[in-house]
Write the structure tokens for this entry.
Amino acid sequence: MSGSTSTGLLAQAEGLLATGSVGRQSVRIACWLTRAALEDRVAELLDARGWPVEDASMRSTMSCLESAYADKDAELVAQAEYAWSALSRVCHQHAYELGPTVSEARHLGELVAGLGVQTTNGTGTR
């Protein structure tokens, strides 16, 4: 995947939230798309640091992100971990739990969209 793929996934998620085109499940589907975009963004961030993760589980990938960025951008790591945790909870919701609201889903999408967007220095690294 690439940045354009994650941007496309986020655009699809926002489209579902805006139109509700698949009924009650629109918010949950939008969260799955946002989670896929997050996975893509985290892989891109790690590739930028020379930490290819390829077939690693997302839990392992998030640990690598923490190691790769803890010294330079702890806020980025915290936002990615928060988004991953929240999206995982929403995507694996139990029948007795309330689903996410549209505003919660949009907030998570905004967090994912903002990952890695901060300014970079001339070498392309943070």
Summary: Helices lie at 3-19, 26-48, 58-69, 74-91, 102-114. The chain has one domain: 3-114. Residues 3-114 form one domain.
